């Protein structure tokens, strides 16, 4: 079977409304599917719900209506324990702000999700060594994140996201704080890691260069979502 033949994520009539004095539709009722190992960039105007969509797929935000089928299971119906397991085992998150623990070293940041997953010590050590070698961050292992440049911190963040070999990597404006050169490096690394691990990659980005490293675009609009 071709690695991109099997549908992994299926979004059905997904709607999210933020309540308040004025209700705001953040996700306008969208439908699309993503296949195993596929690399997709999600676009749309500001406020259309790109980040909200990623948070729903990540299981950190419950949508107002609709379904999110991941490997055929609707995560919208998961209880808190099931969501915790899903976030730990199936999802790797990469943020614009890196989201690294400042009080931990690079090595400890990478090891942390594997420790939470209660992986054997030898597995943690082997995966950590493999990731830092592939991402060329060996020399920073015992440094705190604050001593690293933005591009270096994002490499560490990618290693953290990949630590538990997730089904999908969700990257929310991963180059928003980086210059053009480092942005291209991060996109290339995300694409390479997706291919290497056969991991589905979803990138939210305003940067049109992201499309050079993905298989297709999904453009969100108020009327519908267009898979290009």
Ordered list of secondary-structure elements with their pairings:
Blueprint: E1 7-18, E2 24-35, E3 39-43, H1 50-58, E4 65-70, E5 73-74, H2 80-90, E6 91-95, H3 106-116, H4 121-134, H5 150-162, E7 168-172, H6 180-197, E8 200-204, E9 216-220, E10 225-227
Parallel strand pairs: 3-8, 3-9, 6-7, 7-8
Antiparallel strand pairs: 1-2, 1-4, 4-5, 9-10
Description:
It contains 6 helices and 10 strands. With 228 residues, the chain is an alpha/beta fold. It has a single domain (7-227), classed as P-loop containing nucleotide triphosphate hydrolases (Rossmann fold), CATH 3.40.50. The chain has a 6-stranded mixed sheet, sandwiched between helices. Helix 3 (106-116) packs across helix 4. The mean pLDDT is 91.
Provide key terms for this protein.
single chain; about 230 residues; alpha/beta; Rossmann fold; six-stranded mixed beta sheet; four-stranded antiparallel beta sheet; 10 strands; globular
